[in-house]
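Backbone-to-sequence.
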């Protein structure tokens, strides 16, 4: 535990930090103190300024005003490499490694070991292997980084931090694309680094992870410092209140109405649909006006089911029936023509066009469906975009702002808007609330229920079972790539876990 007493000196102290981008004040009076041997959670809503603070600390951006002091010395790193040289290593929200270099090259990028005038590849691979071994990872370090899943890429980023004997390790939403087991593995590594005296700063929107790991919490709101607390002194409702500036926790989501569509004919129906290695033959009915939740643990087949439904993969048994007629969905384009839309799970690589404006990003799918000869009139584009910025609370200067300038969570909301804008009859949402803050999670779920109320069929996939329970009229439970059964609205998380365990 950190010696967070009055007389203990912080390892790192940021104070009075101001940063504006053209037209946007990202930080005004933000601050942070880190002690050696602590895990510190930096919390705040989407757009609060967390990533910006981290980018100032690590030399990606220059600050407008404020002080940064490391071990009593003022610092002003001008690049991530320079920050790393003085002991601050970072795993950014967006993957910042080079997919086309090998694992070892990524770990030592900018600092290749040399023998005479040549790069010493053997030494580099050997050292990389040893570093990863400290993280319990045994992989071929000469392979391209892109050959490995995100969890491994993240460990590689941490290995890079270790290789420069960092004093401060910063992780911006490191767990947003990891499964439960990978999260546990990452946490074990972070706990060990804490014991070795490293100061770890991490950002997450999973509140349970905050309490599982962190010693202290700092909250930012609208770019301002709200407060700093020992984690045990800031229970979850108080944390949420500090983040959103009001008692949000008290307002529970109006629970989903009982399955009104129950008994009515299914609009979209999977009959016996399966594919070897992906999903055992499965029946699933999706009705207009109903949210069907898909619950299941890691590897249960949730995403695979969505992919088979949306034409990303072809089933080798069964078929999709639309209003009772079997239809082969040869491609996602065909699925879109049938009135489907899908927000995919992997959005970092699949979706955001950073250089296009928020408006252009939102109308992209709708425009694609209309074809290039029938351009959506600009006033119509603006009306749509403005509407979604309002309903989903997308924090942006205006709709002509480039998407790349939005905070991570706001980019995700805009991506959801893109699919909502197509006005689908069936909306497939794979992890729609990843990376969005607690308040926005509720807003998104409210919006999903509203759309279902207007007659849309929704397939809602989330690893957070409490969300599935809150938003679904009916829940299909998967395990080991097989549907175990269905539960009605009003069932509890426990009911779902029971069903999963019973059939183990
Ligand atoms: N390069 C940039 N140009 C213009 N505005 C920016 C830029 N980077 C960030 N901003 C703005 O600064 C504010 C803070 O963004 P930041 O990314 O720090 O938020 P965050 O707390 O990390 O949010 P999230 O939880 O969504 O990741 C936002 O309003 C964002 O749009
Ligand atoms: Mg961020």
């Amino acid at each position: 535990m950190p010696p967070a007493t009055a007389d203990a000196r912080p390892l790192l102290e940021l104070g009075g930090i101001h940063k504006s981008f053209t037209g946007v004040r990202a930080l005004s009076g933000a601050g942070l103190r880190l002690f050696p041997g602590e895990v510190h959670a930096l919390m705040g809503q989407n757009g609060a300024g967390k990533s910006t603070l981290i980018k100032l600390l690590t030399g990606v951006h220059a600050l407008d005003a404020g002080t940064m002091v490391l071990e009593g010395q003022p610092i002003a790193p001008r690049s991530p490499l320079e920050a790393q040289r003085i002991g601050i290593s970072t795993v950014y929200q967006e993957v910042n490694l080079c997919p086309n270099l090998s694992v070892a090259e990524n770990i030592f990028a900018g600092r290749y070991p040399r023998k005479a005038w040549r790069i010493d590849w053997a030494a580099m691979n050997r050292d990389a292997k040893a570093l990863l071994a400290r993280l319990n990872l045994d992989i071929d370090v000469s392979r391209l980084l892109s050959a490995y899943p995100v969890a491994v890429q993240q460990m590689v980023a941490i290995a890079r931090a270790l290789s420069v004997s960092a004093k401060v390790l910063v992780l911006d939403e490191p767990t947003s694309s990891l499964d439960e087991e990978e999260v546990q593995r990452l946490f074990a590594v972070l706990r060990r680094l804490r014991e070795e005296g490293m100061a770890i700063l991490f950002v997450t929107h999973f509140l349970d992870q905050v309490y599982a790991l962190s010693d202290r919490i700092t909250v930012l709101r609208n770019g301002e410092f709200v407060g700093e607390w020992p984690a045990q002194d800031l229970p979850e409702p108080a944390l949420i209140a500090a983040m959103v500036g009001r008692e949000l926790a008290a307002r529970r989501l109006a629970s989903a109405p009982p399955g009104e569509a129950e008994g009515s004919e299914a609009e979209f129906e999977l009959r016996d649909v399966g594919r070897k290695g992906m999903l055992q033959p499965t029946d699933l009915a999706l009705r207009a006006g109903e949210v069907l939740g898909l619950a299941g643990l890691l590897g249960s087949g949730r995403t695979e089911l969505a992919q088979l439904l949306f034409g990303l993969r072809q089933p080798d048994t069964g078929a999709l029936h639309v209003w009772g007629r079997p239809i082969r969905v040869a491609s996602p384009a065909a699925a879109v023509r049938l009135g489907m839309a899908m927000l995919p799970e992997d959005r970092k690589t699949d979706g955001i066009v950073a250089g296009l404006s928020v408006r252009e990003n939102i109308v992209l799918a709708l425009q694609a469906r209309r074809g290039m000869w029938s351009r959506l009139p600009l006033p119509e584009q603006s009306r749509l975009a403005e509407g979604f910025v309002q309903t989903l609370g997308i924090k942006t200067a205006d709709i002509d702002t480039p998407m790349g300038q939005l905070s991570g969570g706001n980019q995700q909301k805009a991506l959801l808007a893109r699919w909502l804008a197509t006005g689908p009859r069936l909306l497939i949402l794979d992890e729609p609330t990843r990376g969005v803050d607690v308040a926005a999670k509720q807003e998104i779920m409210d919006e999903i229920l509203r759309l279902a109320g207007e007659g849309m069929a929704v397939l809602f996939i989330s690893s957070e079972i409490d969300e599935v329970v809150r938003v679904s009229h009916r829940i299909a439970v998967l395990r080991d790539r097989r549907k175990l059964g269905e539960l009605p609205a009003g069932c509890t998380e426990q009911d779902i876990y029971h069903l999963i365990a019973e059939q183990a």
